[in-house]
Amino acid sequence: MKLTKKEQSFLDEFKKISHYREASNLIAWDLRTKAPRKGIKQRSETLSYLSERLHQLQTSDRMKEFIDELRLSENPYIRRSIELVQREYDFHHKIPVEEFKAFVQFTSESESVWQEAKEKDDYSMFQPYLEKIVDYNIRFADYWGYEGHIYNAHLKHYEPGMTVDTLDGVFPKLQKDLSRLIEQVKASSFKPQIDQITVQFPKEKQEAFALHVLDQMGYDFEAGRLDETVHPFAIGINPQDVRVTTNYDEKDFRTAVFGTIHEGGHALYEQGFDPKLYGLPVCSATSMGIHESQSLFWENFIGRSKAFWNTNYSTFLTYAPESFKNLAPNEFYRSINEVKPSFIRIEADEMTYALHIMLRYEIEKGLLNGDLNVKDLPGIWNDKMKDYLGIEPSTDREGVLQDIHWAGGDFGYFPSYALGYIYGAQFKHTLEKEINIEQAIEQNELKKIKEWLNKHIHQHGSMKEPLDLLKDVTGEGLNHQYLVKYLTNKYSDIYGISLS
Amino acid sequence: MKLTKKEQSFLDEFKKISHYREASNLIAWDLRTKAPRKGIKQRSETLSYLSERLHQLQTSDRMKEFIDELRLSENPYIRRSIELVQREYDFHHKIPVEEFKAFVQFTSESESVWQEAKEKDDYSMFQPYLEKIVDYNIRFADYWGYEGHIYNAHLKHYEPGMTVDTLDGVFPKLQKDLSRLIEQVKASSFKPQIDQITVQFPKEKQEAFALHVLDQMGYDFEAGRLDETVHPFAIGINPQDVRVTTNYDEKDFRTAVFGTIHEGGHALYEQGFDPKLYGLPVCSATSMGIHESQSLFWENFIGRSKAFWNTNYSTFLTYAPESFKNLAPNEFYRSINEVKPSFIRIEADEMTYALHIMLRYEIEKGLLNGDLNVKDLPGIWNDKMKDYLGIEPSTDREGVLQDIHWAGGDFGYFPSYALGYIYGAQFKHTLEKEINIEQAIEQNELKKIKEWLNKHIHQHGSMKEPLDLLKDVTGEGLNHQYLVKYLTNKYSDIYGISLS
Q1: How many helices (H) and strands (E) does chain A have?
Q2: Is B266 labelled a binding residue?
Q3: Which residues make up the binding site for Zn(2+) (chains A, B) (predicted)?
């Protein structure tokens, strides 16, 4: 890449940011996978010091100079990089320093209060904290500025270009479609037998199978590794060191196997950046939603597909306990795809998951624009659960208190989870025009799929905004109908009824 | 600890150094144990950036101010910390910056030339590099300044307070004693049967036993962990995260088991620092020699002792292959303690090891004061090998080219390996007056030994200079006779002759 002197200085400055980020990411990985208990306190202080240094670099006057001088660079990589760097700069500079510091301090306190409130199932403990967090977030939106709905000010940090208008044009329809499908599934006479698959399954065997699947997917073990953790994640420590972690439940192999495939999907995205982006701010995922589209694509469309298990079941049996041998492949396939509305989002199946998200989206919007009151949330939550999923939690622990996000100050992040699902189904629909996915799976050629995703999505890093990427790949904007169609077909087959 | 404002600022400044050091140490550990191949290049750049920042902090004007203003602090911890910080400062400031940079650059080149020269067994390739490195080291000694022998200028960086006078008063005698003992051992009729113990031994079993022994030693797994690596090491990432690594040879369990005990000994030192030193520069090992005294103490005096195997052999058999069951404990004990002069230092047994070191010490001294010429080294090396060990390498690869130290620019480090052995035997002699070591081992109370080492050595960190620590613990200065006595007794028993 030919660069001017100024552009080169900008990249040199950005390299420092990368160094701090790399060290911080390695520490974060280590804290969650390997670090011995007693060493954690001091390590956290080191992590916090490095974050502070990183933050200084991202928000320095020097960085502002680069932004001003290079925003019109003729080099498209530099121009786009400057946009990304400016986002970070604005994010912090538009909020008064003291206020932001107080917010960070407050949310850390708030997280521990939430923890206790959840344990005690006592929403009233958490309520005053959430009220203050909502106030902060309303003020922040004003500092940042926005067009249209106040929620847009938050949404853009996770899903640039996405707006409430767009979401409101899609989410309510998706909600109705999903609720309708779920009602039909509930009414079906078939009930998957989960006790057949939730049997003792040694961790080592699960790990060996998980490694086998990652390898099939084309995950590059020379540029990553698989480790154990409590809360699974994928993390790009650098573009050629993208690690996957998973959690093993010896009574339910699905946690580790589908968890690994999910995180593996995230990892393929970051392993797939074009090497010419290395060292540039654009060498990053373009949005949380696009990131999630990759993990859900692999977890659900591939990992939970009939073709995958038709092809891999006999291999799976060589790792699985003896008792699985009595289970026909199709019976197994139906069990791992059970639809069952649940209170807890992170335990939801692929039919019900997006409903959990839309519920939170509605609440977040309402809190920010003043339509809803924090004190009324438990009731609102339960009503919506009943409305969307047909079940009603009997405790706030299983309801409004279940997620950490709000306690941590996050508003605007939840939609990415559902967007990822919708994007993913749109990508799948497009891919199907070029490649027979079922056939590729049955011929053990998952790498063909990976290569398509590499070419159309991964390699671009953040060079394209998420909605532009979607348009370029699929030819259209956000469209939930592919997801609905996919679920209708898949679950008609599984439940032996004709969903409509 | 009550501190003045200035003292507190000094510790705050030092905390930054600790943060960079902690991040760098974690990266170093990861690079050698977990990092995927392709990610290493960028990670090394990050490591180098962090080292640069660390170096800036250690050699800043601000640090110089602290040194000047706090050198006479009334607080002994601060006073001593300032001494340590000043050592780093002087080390770098006394050498012209450009010259030091050139040296670092040159030694990195020199290491790769050495690598190739070793592979090709071609000393003439390496000779001009070593000549230049010797010249650098002579000039550095002048910059640093020294009393007596020029070698003292280098020695002090690894073993503060140690001098050529002291070493020359001890090493030649030790050399004669060891050579004499080895001659007698060679002449004995007993030959240990090594093929009985060098049998296939699965890595997982070796690891399980190594973990068992670390636990017996009192290694705190909540403040550390055991991992696999090519070249074993122990590393204190922070005072409560001190990790051990080992290498598994499935054809020779001794590598992993004694390697783990050795590195575990290093780790106990760093896990044993008094918590009131945390956050201070004195929270570090006082010298390389004292560090090595701890690893050799555990590896040899405990791990290779008769009492240890009398007590642990039956446990060991539960991990070991079936074939070990035909081996009587005493036969096993004699095999793991075979004395056999070898060309390669890192493969040497405990009787011959120190001779390898003294050979190098003599050469280093001679090169620095001009008594020896780099071009003559291969011959000098071989003559000394014959003289000390009675064997002569047929290639330079097995001779003068075997170690990386000189290629990396290090002079003055080797003596620490032998000093550690001598110190260790002196500590053992003192400990024996208070605790019956054999009995403690036989009663599975290794922790008693650890606690004694904690109390007398570990907890002090760098508060005492190595020779002061030695004096405080043993009541005397460097004295090789305890080591000779220990070896005489042990090997008389093993070889069934009366060594003298």
Answers
A1: 20, 3
A2: yes
A3: 262, 266, 292
